[in-house]
Amino acid sequence: MLILPILVGVAASSPAPWHLALAGAALSGYLASAAFQGWSRSRRGPVYRRPLLVYTATFAAISVPLLAMFPALLLVLVVGVPAGLIVVAGAKPATRRDLASSLSQVALAVTLVPASAWVSGMDATGPVVAGTLVAAGYLVGTVLVVRSVIRERSNPRFAAASVVFHLALVVAAAAWLPTAYVLIAVLLAVRAAAFPLLQRRLAASPRPLRPVHLGIAEMVASTLVVTVAFVVPLPGLLPSLVPG
Fold first, then answer.
1. Quick count: other Cβ atoms within 10 Å of Cβ 50?
2. Helix axes 112-119, 18-41, angle to 10 degrees
């Protein structure tokens, strides 16, 4: 979830050494969030206390120089604060991870696309806007597909909603993006329709659909998305996310 938006941001702008620092901040921030959620859900279990402190300190150590060099990164807080509050609310003891929490984490990850442009010294120009929407569409779709075969596996309406969302991505890609992105959107829509069917068909078999199978499929899909982003230039959909 973290690598894809950074790489799409790099593809839409240009590589820079600061991207390594951004990746480090994103990873340590994600690990700190995961440790906090575990700490909160386990009623502040001591096993999570040290990881939470270490990851939070690492995140702060990397983020401070990044913000000093690129103040525009503070704009991430526009999305980060409300999304973070939703994640925190969903980490209460005896609270299952709901769709809102998952989508909030997606929103946080998607901010890495314009952030990648800013640390490369570029404005968040039109191609970066397109890259942000591509990353958002893929990651939201991934959340829907995974939930449709795990937490919502007995809910055909949720699976249908996932397919409808992916078909909307196909239409949007056909309207605004090059053909390669349309083909990727079609493949993702096929994935969204196929996995719930496979899950139900294989549920009683000796080899049911397992999370590892989803993981492998997502690795292939994300690799395709990133590869296309580097090979086929993204168009400028809007003038800019942030004035230069």
1. 10
2. 150
Per-residue pLDDT of the chain (244 residues; tens, 9 = 90+): 789 999 999 998 889 999 999 999 999 999 998 888 888 877 666 788 888 899 999 999 999 999 999 998 999 999 989 998 888 887 776 666 788 889 999 999 999 999 998 998 776 577 888 999 999 999 999 999 999 998 888 899 999 999 999 999 999 999 999 999 999 999 999 999 999 988 888 877 788 888 888 889 999 999 999 999 999 988 776 544 444 4
* Dihedral, 83, 9, 222, 219 alpha carbons, nearest 10: -80
Q: Residues 234, 134: contact at Cβ < 8 Å?
A: yes
Inter-CA distances, 35 with 21, 42, 83, 96, Å: 21, 11, 17, 16
Residue by residue, what is the 3-state secondary structure of the chain? CCHHHHHHHHHHCCCCCHHHHHHHHHHHHHHHHHHHHHHHHCCCCHHHHHHHHHHHHHHHHHHHHHHHHCHHHHHHHHHHHHHHHHHHHCCCCCCCCCHHHHHHHHHHHHCHHHHHHHHCCCCCEHHHHHHHHHHHHHHHHHHHHHHHHCCCCCCHHHHHHHHHHHHHHHHHHHHHCCHHHHHHHHHHHHHHHHHHHHHHHHCCCCCCCCHHHHHHHHHHHHHHHHHHHHHCCCCCCCCECCCC
Tokens of 194: 């196929």
Residues 83, 102 contacting (CB under 8 angstroms): no
Amino acid at 227: T
Token digits for 14? Answer: 């240009």
